[in-house]
Write a structure and sequence with these properties.
Distance between the termini: 55 Å
Largest sheet: 3 strands, mixed
Helix content: 25-40%
Structural class: alpha+beta
Oligomer: single chain
Number of helices: 4
Order of helices and strands: EHHEEHH
Strand order of the largest sheet: 1-2-3
Length: 83
Amino acid sequence: MEVTVHELNLRTAKVMAVVERGGTVTVTKDGHRVAVILPLDLAEPRYPFRTDPMGDDLADMPSFRGGSRILDDLDGAMEGFGE
């Protein structure tokens, strides 16, 4: 379904009823698409994980306890780049 911003303003309840039934509504303004209203279950992220791709278990996370030594090593490794 496609409606203009003006039509959405006038018929919000009817448009939302379409969305509640599982429909998707495209909103246009001056002939250009400006928004898509879709049911919440379709709006969920379409990737298999919701947060950190490494998971919630922090036990396997590496420890960076080298302090400034790590930064010094990194500076040395990057020497000459970007010149």
